[in-house]
Amino acid sequence: MSKLTVTPRTVFQTFLDFPLVEDLDRLSADVAIIGMPYGTPYTIDETINDQTNAPTAVRRASQRISLGLDRYDFDIGGTLFEGQDVKVVDVGDVPGQASGSTGHYARAEAAIRKIRAAGALPITIGGDHGIPIPIFRALDGEGPITLVQIDAHLDWRDNVNGVKEGYSSPIRRASEMAHIEAIFQLGIRGQGSARMEEVEAARAYGSNIITAGQWQEIGTAALLERIPDGGRYYLTIDADGLDPAVMPAVEGPSPGGVTYRQTIDLIKGLFAKGEVVGVDIVEIAPARDINEITSMTAGNIILNVIGAAVRAGQFKRQN
Amino acid sequence: MSKLTVTPRTVFQTFLDFPLVEDLDRLSADVAIIGMPYGTPYTIDETINDQTNAPTAVRRASQRISLGLDRYDFDIGGTLFEGQDVKVVDVGDVPGQASGSTGHYARAEAAIRKIRAAGALPITIGGDHGIPIPIFRALDGEGPITLVQIDAHLDWRDNVNGVKEGYSSPIRRASEMAHIEAIFQLGIRGQGSARMEEVEAARAYGSNIITAGQWQEIGTAALLERIPDGGRYYLTIDADGLDPAVMPAVEGPSPGGVTYRQTIDLIKGLFAKGEVVGVDIVEIAPARDINEITSMTAGNIILNVIGAAVRAGQFKRQN
Amino acid sequence: MSKLTVTPRTVFQTFLDFPLVEDLDRLSADVAIIGMPYGTPYTIDETINDQTNAPTAVRRASQRISLGLDRYDFDIGGTLFEGQDVKVVDVGDVPGQASGSTGHYARAEAAIRKIRAAGALPITIGGDHGIPIPIFRALDGEGPITLVQIDAHLDWRDNVNGVKEGYSSPIRRASEMAHIEAIFQLGIRGQGSARMEEVEAARAYGSNIITAGQWQEIGTAALLERIPDGGRYYLTIDADGLDPAVMPAVEGPSPGGVTYRQTIDLIKGLFAKGEVVGVDIVEIAPARDINEITSMTAGNIILNVIGAAVRAGQFKRQN
Amino acid sequence: MSKLTVTPRTVFQTFLDFPLVEDLDRLSADVAIIGMPYGTPYTIDETINDQTNAPTAVRRASQRISLGLDRYDFDIGGTLFEGQDVKVVDVGDVPGQASGSTGHYARAEAAIRKIRAAGALPITIGGDHGIPIPIFRALDGEGPITLVQIDAHLDWRDNVNGVKEGYSSPIRRASEMAHIEAIFQLGIRGQGSARMEEVEAARAYGSNIITAGQWQEIGTAALLERIPDGGRYYLTIDADGLDPAVMPAVEGPSPGGVTYRQTIDLIKGLFAKGEVVGVDIVEIAPARDINEITSMTAGNIILNVIGAAVRAGQFKRQN
Amino acid sequence: MSKLTVTPRTVFQTFLDFPLVEDLDRLSADVAIIGMPYGTPYTIDETINDQTNAPTAVRRASQRISLGLDRYDFDIGGTLFEGQDVKVVDVGDVPGQASGSTGHYARAEAAIRKIRAAGALPITIGGDHGIPIPIFRALDGEGPITLVQIDAHLDWRDNVNGVKEGYSSPIRRASEMAHIEAIFQLGIRGQGSARMEEVEAARAYGSNIITAGQWQEIGTAALLERIPDGGRYYLTIDADGLDPAVMPAVEGPSPGGVTYRQTIDLIKGLFAKGEVVGVDIVEIAPARDINEITSMTAGNIILNVIGAAVRAGQFKRQN
Amino acid sequence: MSKLTVTPRTVFQTFLDFPLVEDLDRLSADVAIIGMPYGTPYTIDETINDQTNAPTAVRRASQRISLGLDRYDFDIGGTLFEGQDVKVVDVGDVPGQASGSTGHYARAEAAIRKIRAAGALPITIGGDHGIPIPIFRALDGEGPITLVQIDAHLDWRDNVNGVKEGYSSPIRRASEMAHIEAIFQLGIRGQGSARMEEVEAARAYGSNIITAGQWQEIGTAALLERIPDGGRYYLTIDADGLDPAVMPAVEGPSPGGVTYRQTIDLIKGLFAKGEVVGVDIVEIAPARDINEITSMTAGNIILNVIGAAVRAGQFKRQN
């Protein structure tokens, strides 16, 4: 009776209690979860936005979606690793600085390069939708890449008030990169930052826009058929691409969105096609959440990414 | 450097920043957005209900659904006005008075008459479901009209405690008006104020009741076929007609409801059939909302009404 | 004018204002609503959990879903009792005690025995998912019974830290009872407390597991065909079996769940097959609710159970 | 074991569980607690204000301040009734009506007349500060009366937009009544509805204004000396007269206010001087409360009124 | 640039980041902070009450009241340890068990005995006011002790429904212990669980009751003079003893309470008189807090206890 | 009846509806209210802190503390301007920029120089406690100045992580300016960022530190006597200097603080001594507020500043 229980003990909260790796130079893993809290703000008041809190929120909520790696996941159809020797780590967050310089984009790009150099799949938790831009850049040696986006909005602005790497421009920036071969934009609906000229630019580029209504009508199987097989894929998921009933905690909720099942079926389909070189989920605004449902759904999506990668044998190829 | 920025400046909040027109006698517009905060209460405690705040809430939330008229709307399939010369205005709210008289119904009726006299389409934001009654009356010179209602509830009470123009009676009142030719009640489900006698009265009248379950089963296209073409239509939308996952902020949430996509497809279908002489959306209770999703969805529905009207050429006919 | 109105009067809140019967030895009813707030905790901090408040929350919310027995219910297709002489009562809650013994399981079992002895259908509001265990026991003279479960999770643990009758074990316990003939587990998805060994135990037993994805794919009619006709059925509904968009207030929200319509169609289907000997709805966590939607949906489900029982003639058989 | 405990039972909530008397014509009591939810609104949006909920809120909170009449109260210095045969009843609320007429003022006046005719001390829970006006009128046969007010604000407006019996005018109205002999206004501070002309009218009348700062400086004993002994007194307490640290839930919180101890010492002092013919406490806005502290403090003040009346022998005189 | 910052890292939260000591048999410290979350419940619903969360809440809030041991504290008049070699540790919480037995009282008593055996001053964070009972027992070899209580309530019940060690009885239990020599009850006011018989029992015992009003009137210096010098003292602080403006988060807020300055002056005075053998602060209900002010004030009080002990040379005597 | 009332109209919200002046080069006023939302952050997460929202919050709350300039203020003892021809304007907020440079300090300094050049008294609403640093600089031509600070904390750090103009350093920076002659630090208590070395630096400088306890003990009159007459004064008020019961919405609530009455008596005393060249109120964190009490009290303090200035004839001297 000489030991008291320490009830309120909280340990470092990585995603799903995966081990924390702080030194990317010595990274050895199949999957690296990474947080990117900071985008490139349009005004000083956006330097820190609610999305900045999302990496912490999703990691915390991850404790409510899984009790351990030995649990059976009926979405995935087995345990997460299916008995394979898979190593997932959490590498923490890309730091910002008080100076306000956007040096964190350079740090983000460097981090992704190291993760890829280590042969690991980066799964990034934003932050707003500006944060994939340095990720895209870090993949320049891995093209040609097919970029798949789930989003309500087109995100095709050249710039907003002169700022070119903010959350309205990630797909435009991607379209300018030589190693991005094709773009699929899924779940698009309602209004965003796009004007007629952005829609025309997207069309001129050859972007494949499938609205939320179209996806619902044709089904996920048919949609997957439109995406060529055998390539390399990057998947960027804007939380507002999903329906607000599934992910209510976003700045721009838009009714009539993509369902959770559509999302995880798409994920499975992409891994069945070829190698996925990275995934991100962005634009979660935790302060607007109810019962952490948005963060928990984000966590479930990440689980499905890992589970699909395992079942597609992606980590066997690499190891 | 002699000018400071006035950060917190807020200007008058009309719906989507459309111009405010306060003098209805000089109205010149294609669409007039109008707020009707006050119904006819059953008890003194209902004089001001949460629905009273809905016009303000929907106008405020409208700022989050559109950044301007040049934005492309993927629900509508283009910019709101599609390049046409369309004029939308906000004419403010019908005032109530401390005396508690329901003189606001007379003012509401007069306002709708002026809007229609000016050739504009009135889009009304309630208020509870009593507020369409004076609107119906104002349309007496425009019959025959087919009334289409999206609602969980029948709203067919003759009176409640002697009050005949409250939120339980709008469709009963409509059924008594000579210029209302036919009634379609869509999305009906669960329990409301209707007893067996109200259901029988509705059936005796010939009301076309399509439950939420039936609509889901047959689809929107088949449903639209049941509504005759070539007429004039009035659409009243009770927020609780939609599913609580889409519009949670209502007094009487009822699971298993109408989806956003069903709603906007119905809207497009009605405008394709003939002239729509008015639309209202009522029974939003902002205090129960989460992340303004109900008010934003209401705003999206209004956008789809305007977009469908533009594409149906309704304003060309009038101008 | 000598009488003042007593505005804040609140009377005892039974479910839907059905009469309260406190003495089960003199029970005479067709349906008995009963609350079971307390499960068997794994830790002292779970002795009182949020689910403990669910019976009160569902009873309170029931006032918002029905204005009286004369109301027409479009989910059910008529008034609740359809003109039949049906008697529904609320028998209150099974009490717990400060001593912390789990004597309430014995009391729960005894209460269900008395309700069944009186020929009534027990509808239980939990509490967590441990509370059906004594209910199952109380039905030992009524086998063979087909157990139907709507749930995200398998609940097939033999024990957790030595505790065998907690919320992770109800189906395992049921599988051990001779009078439980078959088990159908519907809506299963994501991760719960099940490890590979629990999945294998369920399979070895012959449990019929239909995931949420499978149910959506095949439809409710096909699912019902897999359940044999002509038997006796017990239905246990874990609130997290339904989609969080419908029932957000649960400890373990899991996206991609069962819809309200699937649920009520299943209920109608079961009553069409044979006698239903009991229904429970558990795991509602009211503090996480939004606009009481979870509690109201639970109430609607209970209404559909009663309405389906009436229409299946179950009470005629008994009276 | 045949009886279940009915945990969620709630009975009618009177103040401190005192018996409810609904028929004022047969009233036999020493103290009558009465709620007056409705004032005379300046705009339709004030018909129902947050103060309307105060009678219910104070009654509910009263359960947290006393466990029964046998408890010793250290503020009062004994049990509430000190062993005397005292009868306190709750007579419910003065009803309002949907029509919006202010007939409730006539009903309020009639109720107070009946309470006084029965020889009871009326303690009124508002409502806003308009509600004492009919109370004052009902006391016209009991003059001369010294009116004592605790308030941040002067409340001396002749009318606001033509409305003469609203919450800005109670003291002006009192000053016009022949049976009100003198007025003491205590705790006044900051700004209210008073302009220079109202201050001058108060001064011309001879109102004794003691600001919050002055009260703090001179102390309660000295303040009580300024009020003549041996008269009849009516005490009206505006919740914003007290400091927001004590009563935060008011529309017009004003720092630097009256303390709880000053308030109860004043109450004891008034009862020591002569007969108190009525007390009210108004302007509590429950939605702004924190931990029900405002409503609980209001309840404590009411307890001190009753306790002081008992100890002053006021009920002995009457019985 | 190979290391990412791990922003959301949280380490174990001890009070003020003092080191955690889990093995009390090897304790070597001057002060031991200990949490006692569980009392002895009167009903099953009180097994876990809001006070159970207070140790965690106070530890978390402690991070907001001090940036480190090198900070100057103007309440104390220097740094916490004043340059002395003082060792403060946090020993975690006394665990409860699912079985519901109150074995945690035995564990609490044993823990305090070990802390005292190690020569350390125990500062306990409750839990409700039942938790000091085992603490008192653990001090039986250190009498005679003067018990000083700050509280709104007398806590002198012999039992409540047969339960003798609940939160209404700590002072009655203390009065029965031979090693408790004298009792001072400070700040008493309003009503609690005490009936006339409890007040008389307290008086018969010779308890020194000083009401909140008396303390305010005579001042802290005079109050301290009434407590004999040169003894050993135990201080139990019920959070509701302080004014709700200072500690709003309590179950029984009572206006007119003790101020923070009175409290810390009393603490300094006690340490100036003799040895203080233990301090507890109980009855904080974190869910009712605003801006963590209650928990922060509790932390400030603990700092003042340590600071006063240091300045009184109490730890020098022991080391 | 052709005009509808526009209920939700909101116009630009200046403090107390005083006119907005955006061009400081053409400023002609006695008092200029100015907002400074941005300080110099220590980390990127502090770039936008809750204090950034304070100017907007205080302006909005100002509508609840005064109904117009003709109202009598009993704290001030008359109408705000006492019939004098006084001109108060609101000049908006000093803008920040997305680039994150702290150019806003230069803009703040320039703004204050222009305000002083126009002969107006600047009243600044922060922002955190870094924002007075550029204000102090702007007063370099107006020395010698006596700086008076109401604060819980000393704010005397030379730098924090190399940042020299953050919220922990304003008084240290002031001490280094030649035109600051003397410093009075009032209400100091508990712990802040000060270590022994900061306390010693303050003492070495000759700062007059009067703790909250000392102020309470000696009274405001005696405190004012310690501040020399006939000088020029600048008053900086950190909201946490006041008691949390008065201003709960601060990052560092510290019990035992300064009262509202002490604050306004100090303000009156300073204006009685000589010219006050500027006032600021900082560190309000609106998200932590309850019923806007903190923002309203801030507004009341500003009113007392203006009222005291008017009564001291300060504007007559200047005009």
UniProtKB/TrEMBL annotation, chains A, B, C, D, E, F:
Family annotation (InterPro entries): Ureohydrolase, Ureohydrolase_dom_sf
CDD domains named among the record's database cross-references: Agmatinase_like_1
PROSITE patterns found in the cross-reference section: ARGINASE_2
Name of the featured protein: Agmatinase
Protein source organism: Mesorhizobium opportunistum
Keywords per UniProt: Hydrolase, Metal-binding
Family membership noted in the UniProt record: Belongs to the arginase family.
